[in-house]
Amino acid sequence: MSGFGPSDSFLADCPARLAVELIADKWTVVVLYGLSRGPVRHGELIELIGGISRKVLTQTLRRLESHGLVRRHAYAEVPPRVEYELTPLGATLIDPIHVLTEWARANGDAVLDALDTNSEPLAQHG
Predict the structure, then answer these.
(1) Could you tell me if 49 and 34 are in contact, meaning their C-beta atoms sit under 8 angstroms apart?
(2) Are 70 and 35 in contact (CB under 8 A)?
(3) DSSP 24
(4) Are 10 and 16 in contact (CB under 8 A)?
(5) For residues 66 and 87, what is the distance between their CA atoms, to the nearest angstrom?
(6) What's the pTM value of the predicted model, to 2 decimals?
(7) Are 94 and 32 in contact (CB under 8 A)?
(8) How would you write the pLDDT of the chain (126 residues) with one tens digit per residue?
């Protein structure tokens, strides 16, 4: 018996599972953290994050906007200026992101050590 009941949070079609899948994306947490200090332009986010393409950043921002975590504000200026910022809902993720960041700092070396230790036998089976 697995111990899971029909009302468990992470089973199919559950809002909690959708939320976890959203933030489990490779770039979501990084983009949210990049927006944590206030409104930022697209190009500034590219520089701040590093390693993300313009296309992927745009897709990530659109997904976060559609899920209510990010707000896009286009200014009526020439040249056009667009800024992105966290919504109040998006801001609620910053503390959990900080907790995960601290966990990663404290345990990153142990994770790499385990990966190095466990990858050797796998390579022999290939």
Answers:
(1) yes
(2) yes
(3) T
(4) yes
(5) 11
(6) 0.76
(7) yes
(8) 455 555 566 666 677 777 888 888 889 999 999 999 999 999 999 999 999 999 999 999 999 999 999 999 999 988 889 999 999 999 999 999 999 889 999 999 999 999 888 776 554 544
